[in-house]
Amino acid sequence: MSLKKLFEERSDIAWKANMPSVSIDCVVFGFHDSSLKVLLVRLKDQPLWSLPGGYMGKKEELKDAAARILNERTGAENIYLQQFKVFSKLNRSEDFFKDYDDTLWHKQRFLTVGFYALVNYTDVEPVIDELSDACEWVDINTLPEMMMDHREIFDKALVTLRRQLNYKPIGYSLLPEEFTMPELQKLYEIILDKKLNRGNFYRKMTGYDILDKLDEPRKGGAHKAPNLYRFNLDKYKAALKDGLKEGW
Amino acid sequence: MSLKKLFEERSDIAWKANMPSVSIDCVVFGFHDSSLKVLLVRLKDQPLWSLPGGYMGKKEELKDAAARILNERTGAENIYLQQFKVFSKLNRSEDFFKDYDDTLWHKQRFLTVGFYALVNYTDVEPVIDELSDACEWVDINTLPEMMMDHREIFDKALVTLRRQLNYKPIGYSLLPEEFTMPELQKLYEIILDKKLNRGNFYRKMTGYDILDKLDEPRKGGAHKAPNLYRFNLDKYKAALKDGLKEGW
Question: How many structural domains comprise chain A?
């Protein structure tokens, strides 16, 4: 069935079930193979990609709605979610819906609340739902063209991540439980969009006293086995409460 | 006329003019006499205080609506405004409107978008509108009890201000054009909620190279006249772009 037909079929129920004016778009970040990725969807019959999103039930809180939307899309539960901005431009979706009837739910004016989500890459099984024909992880350095204002929403999410690096558990949420110092540094470099000095990074990170070094280094590989670390969640949370003190 | 009657009178027009589901609440900060103040309103016939707020026109963008609401309330133009969070709790206003008809515009479920505003205290002339019987500056350390979730909105605004101190022009927007180093330090201490060492503060602040020292010290007073400074806006903005590097 075409996307148009599917929207039309769903319009009546959407009018009854959802809060008017408010939609949700999610920028889902995952870290894998030394690169930061974002989960994108391509709706049926569309050339452009979009962020996973949806609407908010009349009796639902905003964050619960975002968690539900992401759970349907990824299978993951207890996803780290943070709202970061409302996007309210007039005619955000005018072009997209120009061939639709004015009474269509989806064609109304929506303010969209942007959430960023941090997931453990391996926990996610991207789901292609009835409205879409693709749902994939994409490296943030090779993003395809996106529909409506979704690129702007993505850009803002990344800037927010950068600014919140010192007071949200971003490393903890994106990395697997055990990781090496170079892996942690790589994540910071991608989010901050700059190279960091290895010695300084090591010194600052250990200075914060938020990591536990494991007794056993990582097995395998020809070189000297690298040390493994894991976040000490109690200490990490305590340190983030006042914010880590130094810039990068 | 009673508040109830006024709401009832305005309900029909509000249904026609505004975006459903979305309201705006503003936390307006001003700095005066070495204390940080917030602008509060007391609606007619109400014991509790509230944040100045309102609704968003169908053809209006969010920030423009917040600017309009604040202009009506303060007379000030070009106010520094920053949205910081959407508050979406169910039944936020249920108690407040329990004696009203269910069809009343104001009784519907609203998600409210919190904005903080930074104003030059002397630019503001608080306006008591038809719905309220008080509109006053209150020291943030002696806040009265507030209605609905307005205290939670205020608290979140203050935390946001604290976290954005290194990358938003907060000092510039709150201080008069010319100020002394102790005045700037006092503002930082209030926002950060901690005492700062005078020598360290001076060293860091001058190290950022964002202030111009005036040739003439402040006139009057028995003591040695203190030096006056003003933000160098070009340098300040350039430095904030990447974020000031050190914690406080």
Answer: 2
The reply to whether residue A90 touches residue B20, judged by beta carbons under 8 angstroms, is: no
Query: What are the structure tokens assigned to B176, written together?
Result: 């008069």
pLDDT number for residue A36:
96
Contact state of B111 with A22 under an 8 Å Cβ cutoff: yes
Return d(Cα B118, Cα B168) in angstroms, integer: 11
Mark which of A121, A140, A163 sits at the end of a domain.
A163
* Cβ within 8 Å, pair A243-B245: no
A212 is a domain residue: yes
- Note the pLDDT tens digit of each residue in A20-64: 999 999 999 999 999 999 999 999 989 999 999 999 999 999 999
Q: Residue B246: which pLDDT band, with cuts at 50, 70 and 90?
A: low
The answer to whether the CB of B112 falls within 8 A of the CB of B153 is: yes
Q: Which domain holds residue A231?
A: 178-242
Note whether A47 and A142 are within 8 A (CB): no
> Is A169 within the bounds of a domain?
no
Check whether residue A113 and residue A235 sit in a common domain: no
Q: Considering CB atoms only, which of A111, A163, A244 is closest to B62? A: A111
What is the least distance, in Å, from the CA of A64 to any CA of chain B?
Answer: 10
Claim to verify: residue A145 and residue A39 sit in the same structural domain: yes
3-state secondary structure of A40: strand
Identify whether residues A156 and A182 lie together within a single domain.
no
Instruction: Judge whether A127 lies within some domain.
Output: yes
Bridge-based pairing of strands B18-32 and A211-213 is unpaired
Contact at 8 Å (CB) between A147 and A95?
A: no
Q: Does A85 touch chain B (CB under 8 A)?
A: yes
Structure tokens at A81: 């979610």
Together in a domain, B66 and B186: no
d(CA B68, CA B92): 24
In a shared domain, residues A20 and A76? yes
Distances (CA, A) of B156 to A8, B26, B73, B86: 40, 12, 22, 11
Between CA B31 and CA B19 the distance in angstroms is 33
CB contact under 8 A, B113 and A21: no
